[in-house]
Amino acid sequence: MTQIDPSEAAKAVVRRNTIEVQGGGDFAVFDELFADDFVDHTPQPGVTADKAGVKILYTTLRQAFPDFHADIQWQSADGDLVTTYKIYRGTHRGEFLGIPATGRTMGFETVDAMRVVDGRIVAHWGVGNLYSLVHQLGARLTAG
């Protein structure tokens, strides 16, 4: 009997989230992949650091960028921790971060790490280049 490498299994879960949930908007898969006690250690502005907050973020992104998807550039795993470098792409068709729809296409880089336990995502840490995204949409950031 062939054993499945735990790192490869964890990478497959994260890829499913990237492709099917983020890129395809399949929230039934979201509920399957994210643990109820999920914690986002680097939540985005305006959302909570739990499963519900991530679902709101993904929904908001899909509404603002209906063709939202990620091109995975590389992925590595150390046991149950999967690190992914990807470029998100989409067309700005709805309000995002207070910026009205522009019709512009965008692409911004993200590096994130997700811990997968028993086939479910339990934790996330990430850095996204939101400055690049806001700049591509023609907005300016101001100091608070």
UniProtKB/TrEMBL annotation:
<dbReference type="GO" id="GO:0030638">
    <property type="term" value="P:polyketide metabolic process"/>
</dbReference>
<dbReference type="Pfam" id="PF07366">
    <property type="entry name" value="SnoaL"/>
</dbReference>
<protein>
    <recommendedName>
        <fullName>SnoaL-like polyketide cyclase</fullName>
    </recommendedName>
</protein>
<dbReference type="InterPro" id="IPR009959">
    <property type="entry name" value="Cyclase_SnoaL-like"/>
</dbReference>
<dbReference type="InterPro" id="IPR032710">
    <property type="entry name" value="NTF2-like_dom_sf"/>
</dbReference>
